[in-house]
Amino acid sequence: MSRTAVSSMLAGCVGILLALPPAWAEGLDEVVVTATRAPQSLAEVPATISVVSGQELSARDSRDLSASLALVSGVEAPSGGDAGPSSAVPSFWGLHEFDAFLLVVDGVPWGGAFNPAITTLNLTGVQRIEVLKGAAPVMYGATSFVGVVQAIHYPAGAADDAADVAYGSYGSLRGSVSAALPSTSSFRESLFVDGGDTNFSDPREKARDANALYRGSLDLGSGVVRLDANLSFVRDVPPSPVLHTGPGMSAVTPVDANFNPADARIDENKYHLALGYTQPAGRGQWETLLSFAYSTVTDIRAFLHPDLSGTADTQSQSRAIDDGYFDTHWIQTTSDGPTLAVGADLLYGRGRQTSLNGNDGYTVPLDGSALPPPSYDVPVTEIGTIDDRRLFAGQFAQATWKLGSRWNVDAGIRLNETYEQKESSDLTLPPPDFASATVHKTIVKPSETLGISYRAWTDGNNQAVLYADFRNAFKPAAVDFGPDYTPDLLSPETAQSYEIGLKGALADGRLTYQTELFALNFSNLVVPTSSGALANAGGEKLRGVEVEARLRATEDLSFVATASYHDATFSNYLFFDGESDVNVSGRQLPLSPHVMAAAGLLYTPVRGFISTAVFRYVGRRYLDEENTAEVGGYGTIDANIGYRWDRYDLRAEGANLTDRRPPVTASEFGSESFYLLSGRTLWLRIGYSWK
Q1: What average pLDDT score do residues 451-460 get?
Q2: Beta bridge partners of 284
Q3: Is 319 helix (H, G, I), strand (E, B) or coil?
């Protein structure tokens, strides 16, 4: 194509953008709260934040974290993993770790001091999802490294006022209700309920769940009392991960073969209550939040030995987790001075688990033709217990200064006090061999953030903002609640990150964009050693660039495009490959692709034909630390098409229409084992709205 033709095409595209009618979407003026807790416009925050609106989630019928984050640049969140098919394992900045990010729901760390509780995440009635790249070392302390995902539901008294039901592949069924209950001027209520029974191409794999969230608020004195009550029940039957052998995935076992015990399941019951109070105080607002959650988990499954002998180790675990959270802070917002947030918070967690392990429990044919025995028929050869108590406290202050009409400076500091005590025991049979340990660790350590933004250009609704930030964070090592005896408490993992970026708007605000360059240095990485024990013996470097653009072409038609390049490597790691230690410094992290891209189209008029489509591409990556097993890139398509009447809508929906089944998540419990992307699913959905 000639240079003249390219110039003409670019000029034509610019002309079309400039001719578009004025924008009605908020764009960079949208107010976000995840970065500083104080309401800030997206343009002013010196960090990369993506916002997925409730309208977009509804248009794409996004029911889980994987679908919800599909159009966020640089983020991959395949469903499944060790926590079961109702869960997901997100990756940010090229780091694919279940516990490296923080999940927040309406201001509460969801999963508390342990791991993100994705399985009990209720996305019905979500008003928006805010995704902050990098850590939040001041506002949320020792809980995340590479990302914060906050799901914000409609406040009490507001809702979609809609219900739906859908029937899908393999006899799947799901439904939801989002309703604002009758309210008065001083008392408001909403109820969000969803549930489903999802089946897969593996006839044994299932994801069943039921969730209910009640939100109430009451005007009391000069303030507002808020009450949230959440119930979640999950009944999953996990798939078996596929073994990696040699340069790729094993072809010996069928893709959907399930080698778990006949009674395999991951059952979870969660009960959550949160009480908050907000009132004016001085020149600002004082907010207090108290939250408590109690969860019980039954986890029964097995993992094949990597030698492809057909022998499997079984585990039958019972777990109880307490999560407590308290936060109180004061936010000063003035037009002639800095915005200041000062407060303190406390995060408490206690996890108790008993694990009955059947090492070499049974042997099955690798073609999946035989149903393995139930776990209660497998001899118990090891009994492990753990009782882990965690207490993360912090006092923080963060300020935002507006220097004239162009400059913004954000600075914050937090003093973290973390305490952990772990009691663990291990009894192996036969002959009896008992070990136990009680250890504790206290850490007092600051964390900081500093950011600056400069509004380089403004012309009506068009603008360009440059920004840069630095964040210093640390995080105590995760508790994975696996079957192995791990009595030690390791040192916290630490990370320092740097960002520079550009965000802005064109076409009278209809086209918004943001791009960032980032670098993160990760140290004290927890890795397995040649003895099988875990140790702080590794480091990682994450580098990359991410781009995201959203165009509101008309009131009914939107386009989204994202692209990212990540270079995630080990910086200091002697990896034990089963025979000797291998220096893998400079090699790519497993399951970390260099290239990812996505494109989305959303056509959602109030009445008439409606359709959305999302295409995602994930580039080639390695399965192993030595980078000897490479798997190619893959693309997926999710789409729906339907018709909307005044109150009803009917849609046909499809996920992973290309039916690709690549390995997407490594198991932390099964050696050399990987979970595959779920296959193609189709749905027929009918919805009703009374708003």
Answers
A1: 96
A2: 281, 332
A3: strand
